[in-house]
Amino acid sequence: MSAGDTHRICLLDGDGIGPEVVAAAAAVLSAVIPRLESTRARIGFGVYEELGTPLPRETVDAVRSADATLFGAVTTPPGIPGYRSPILALRQDLQLFANVRPVRARGASSPALDLVIVRENTEGLYAGRERREGDTAIAERVVTRAASERIVRYALDLARARPRRRLTIVHKANVLRETCGLFREVALELAADWPDVETNELLVDAAAMELIRDPGRFDVIVTTNLFGDILSDEAAALAGGLGLACSANVGRDAAIFEPVHGSAPDIAGTGAANPLAAILSAAMLLAHLGEADAARRVEAAVEQVLASGPRTPDLGGTAGTAEITDAVIAALDR
Length: 334
Ligand code: NAI
Ligand code: MG
Description:
alpha/beta, Isopropylmalate Dehydrogenase, Rossmann fold, 10-stranded mixed sheet, two-stranded antiparallel ribbon, binds magnesium ion
């Protein structure tokens, strides 16, 4: 895929503020690349209530056949037996093995922060192997050479494409000698084949502390599933919180771009949702499609709006979703 091709994207609204932020991001996408073709597919709890499944087969097909997908958020109510979050199901069914979260200081926060967390998205402690044996609960942590290799390769390629070309391998191999031991071994082996990327390693607890103490030292971080989940929320908090946190789930045959936040039922329908996380996710989608210039224009427009306002309530302002979206679109050509 490259700039100038006609791209086909799939829009997945979901529940709560999902449709509101996807509409905002879709408006920005059409403003920046008018020739985008988009389809819509249904996902989430609302669909479950209507059809008995939160992830109709047509939706999986639509995501698989699109060049890229933009997803809002879904509501996943606890306590429904057998109910599985449809976004988790999509990540697993489509083998979207890389969860990618860029974290950059935007607007007022610390200027030194510009890092990407690359998290293994298919195994580790989230492999789903948990059980009870009487009063003992056991979770099995699964780490394979194949999954470790593909995530580390992805992170090395990403680091190579960035100005600082640095990769930090985060693990806890001093305690988890087999699982983290294998991940570390594979990562160090592969790093030797990317001599232009400067690689170092850090224990996960030290990494959590360093992210607060000196976040500017990090460029690309690669780690296993649970560690990546925790560190990426920590890092997002350093850079403006959920209203700005964007992400990608990338596999060989499909890619889904989504704000990190959930369906925010507390503000759904009020028009107060911050659309910037979804808009920044759309910028990642553009970069994935090979539209680097368009991606940069969207990012620059978001920077401008953050610098000069308006702002939504989560960032201390009083503006609504539509006002922010219009401001971003107006800033595209400045
Ligand atoms: P949440 O991210 O939806 O909301 C947490 C808090 O942040 C709320 O106060 C909300 O109003 C605020 N917030 C979130 N996004 C915002 C935005 N764009 N602008 C302004 N404020 C925003 O997380 P919560 O409340 O834990 O979960 C709500 C529902 O979302 C649950 O059903 C949960 O399962 C689901 N969820 C879905 C995710 C997904 O679809 N990927 C991710 C996380 C949660
Ligand atoms: Mg999380």
